[in-house]
Amino acid sequence: MRLKRKDLLGIEDLKLEEIEQILSTAESFKEVSTREIKKVPTLRGKTIINLFYEPSTRTRTSFEIAAKRMSADAVNISVSTSSVVKGETLKDTAKNIEAMRPDCIVVRHPSSGTPLMLAGYVGCSVVNAGDGAHEHPSQALLDMLTVKERKGSIAGLKIAIIGDIAHSRVARSNIYGFTRLGAEVVVAGPPTMMPAGIETLGCRATTDMDSALKGADVVMMLRIQLERQKESFFPTIREYSRVYGLDEMKLKKAKEDVIILHPGPINRGVEISSEVADGPYSLILDQVTNGVAVRMAIFYLLLGAAKEEGK
Amino acid sequence: MTRLVIRNGRLVDPSSNIDGVYNIYVMAGRIASVKPSKTDTTEITPGAPGLEIIEAEGLLVVPGLIDVHTHLREPGFEYKETVQTGAQAALAGGFTTILCMANTKPVNDNESVTRYILKKAEASGCAVLPVGALSRAQKGESLTEMAELKAAGCVAVSDDGVPVVDGGLMRRALEYSKIFNMPVISHAEDPLIAGSGVMNEGAVSTRLGLKGIPNAAEDSVVARDISLARLTGGRLHIAHVSTRGAVELIRAAKGNGVKVTAEATPHHLALTHEAVAGYNTNTKMNPPLRAPEDVEALREGLRDGTIDCIATDHAPQSTIEKDVEFDRAANGIIGLETAFSVIYGLVEAGVITLNQAIAAMTINPAKAFGLDKGSLRVGAQADMTLIDLNQSWTVEAKGLKSKSKNTPWLGATLKARVVKTITGGKSVYGLERP
Amino acid sequence: MKKVVLDEKSIDRALSRIAHEILERNKVPERLVILGIPTRGYHLALKLRKKIEEIEGVTLPAGAVDATLYRDDLGIKKDQPPLKKMDIPIPIDGHVVIMVDDVLFTGRTVRAAMNALMDFGRPLAIQLAVLVDRGHRELPIKADYIGKNIPTSTSEDVKVHLSEIDGVTEVVIYTAEDK
């Protein structure tokens, strides 16, 4: 029943059964959050450290709530990246944290590959809470849970992921996850933000938003970093919004029962119009609710059993 | 007068088209004669005073290897490498001559730094030939005093490590260096196209979520520098070629009579960008490991002579620079001690012939830089490397002479091991038997 | 070796008796909630409810109380047990909960289930009904209603099979050799 792994670093190396196991466990955990007393003693005495090298209220809070609902002790460490340059190395930080004997480190870092590196330094579990433009596995899992709840099953669905694909870890994790569950994934965005060889991850790529939306069951809009304008990835926010912003007109191309996801926080009026964000097909808040359940499931499956010998 | 005889080794000397079992006689540091072992009737008396005999049966004997691209880090970064440790690493890798780049601290842009390096190298047993900076402090603004650098002992000029962004300055360097017949080594990269990339741009960088450096960052500057070499008639040497586009440009330029030579590193010849998966910072270097098509083009370039030299781009970095997040890690890997073994791996795989490999590490670099080296013809300086092609060895940090251990081959078992290195007829390195 | 100790008919009779005992002891049947511990305890709870409803002509809420997250052996076991259904149909405050399980053994599962239940409110009382009590208690827990006491040795294994899950309804004892 346990995940046969010490760490959860990405969706790429998860087997189909492992994804299904996390999702079904998360479905059970949703119930805990609906109780009057939203707490189970399962991870009593476990220490979970949220090590965040990037500001992220949403994800950090979600992991923290998940840990607390499992009765684990959650400690947050926020490191501002600027001070890291002069400060101690990741390895030293990792070794120091490990000396405090945590059971799990949840790490968010602007550099791709850092969770893997950290996992090599420490004996406890490491959960990737987003690394650079690489992966954000818990986000993809909560997205899959949200879609599965609404659509019943994921196989055969058409998922459109739209926006800044190049810089998006959410896009990568979701491409791996949804294709592994049998969905067809198409990514769309401006060529400046379409990374080389993205098709090798198993999706189709287009710069034409309409063709991506056509017949889509699920539309996932990505947050556009307004700073990208300075690097000439697009000329202006106004023009980006005009070509790749989702409004009700464009959404008509999708299936009638389309659902809209967004990893948040949303830029209203930029990548998504308010009518769409607040519309009946928007599951943005369900995603947030499911995020806690998915993270509880991850903690349960990684930490809920005896440690293996020699670890 | 000291004499040295190396008997019954398999001599491969591409400079004189020799491949066979020979006895090599050295007198006063120079090659006195080279005779086929089978018919050699020279009588020698073992134990005669001043006579050293090396039985080299089963060993490969080649001219001392030449590496035209190393970074020795001294002065300024002695914690990464010193001239002394770099020279020891070179000898352990079979290199008897190395060219060291100017990006030290201070930059080797004047005779005092050049002399300092030469002084440090004096007793090392390895010929260390400094490359002077192309521009003052490698700032890319104004030319260095090349007459002074040449007089002090520099054999070429380059801002390697820092691309020369200003094409006008590159033009002047290619023109001005003609006075001294010094090649200009180009680190061909457009830093604005490369941007903040940390590996090759392609499917692997996309998968790993790392920023990519497109081939165009190299191709465009190779094209520019070839045009400038054609315009000026200057001697251009392209460092660490990594792209198929650059190979094509150099091939065409050579066909058109442009005075251009080129080098490729063992890692660019042996590894692709897939090696970066796993975020091992010892796979991070500039230029980055490229796609399989690029590697294939480099190999073809080596076969057809477009790529003249194999050069290591030996770039020591300590754990301070390498034991960090991938995108923050410093570029570069060490290469002196693994170069021959890695290249011999390509020979065994049928990519290149042994003769091509040896040529690219001996006579070709000597010719490219106008050095009277890389050959064992009679009268030449007796720099030789003895290699046991059948000996496998495992690359381990503790066994490396280099002060830094940043190689992607850590833990790998490679074939072919340098067992003895000789400079000027004197044994300067011998493999310690465990 | 496998030995059938209760067949379908005996199980049915035992449940009927338990239903009567429950009603005898609880004079206000409307206050009852029948909660089974998944998986087989839950199915027994549904059977028990049906019997009580038939006897008394009332409608009773029934549900499941999953003790998994409250187990005391999670950090010891090599594998996490899969989560099962938690279904508390009504607020349990002021109700008498009949907690149903198939086999009462160490008492640890019942302890965990009671803790789980307490997180949902304060029942008037919890009473425990089990189909089989095989002894070997490790905690001070005792069943209020027992289908059958079966003295066993610790090397033996008692299994309840129910047609809904196992295709056959019976209680069997396996001895260690051929477990």
Provide the β-strand percentage band of chain B: 15-25%
Shape of chain A: globular
Helix content of chain A: 25-40%
What portion of residues of chain A belong to β-strands? 5-15%
Distance between the termini of chain A: 19 Å
- How many structural units, i.e. domains of chain B? 2
Task: Give the proportion of residues in helices of chain B.
Answer: 25-40%
How many strand segments of chain B?
A: 18
- Tell me about the biggest sheet of chain B? 8 strands, mixed
Average pLDDT level of chain B: 97
Name the CATH superfamily classification of the largest domain in chain B: Metal-dependent hydrolases
Radius of gyration of chain B: 21 Å
Head-to-tail CA distance between termini of chain B: 33 Å
Residue windows where pLDDT falls under 50 for at least 5 positions of chain B = none
CATH topology of the largest domain in chain B: TIM Barrel
Provide an overview of this structure.
The complex is a heterotrimer of chains A (311), B (434) and C (179). Chain A is an alpha/beta fold and 311 residues long. Chain A is built from twelve helices and nine strands. The two termini of chain A are 19 Å apart. With 434 residues, chain B is of the alpha/beta class. Chain B folds into two domains: 3-61 and 379-430, Urease, subunit C, domain 1, CATH 2.30.40.10; 64-368, TIM Barrel, CATH 3.20.20. Chain B is 28% helix and 24% strand. Chain B contains 14 helices and 18 strands. In chain B, strands 1, 2, 3, 4, 5, 16, 17 and 18 form an eight-stranded mixed β-sheet that branches. Chain B has an eight-stranded parallel β-sheet with strand order 6-7-8-9-10-13-14-15. In chain B, a hairpin with a 2-residue loop joins β17 (413-423) and β18 (426-430). The radius of gyration of chain B is 21 Å and the shape is globular. Chain C is α/β, with parallel strands linked by helices and 179 residues long. In chain C, 28% of the residues lie in helices and 26% in strands. Chain C has helices spanning 8-25, 40-56, 108-118, 163-166, and strands at residues 2-6, 32-36, 62-64, 96-104, 125-133, 145-149, 157-161, 170-174. A five-stranded parallel β-sheet of chain C has the order 3-2-4-5-6. Chain C has a three-stranded antiparallel β-sheet with strand order 1-8-7. Chains in contact: A-B, A-C. At the A-C interface, α1 of A face loops of C.
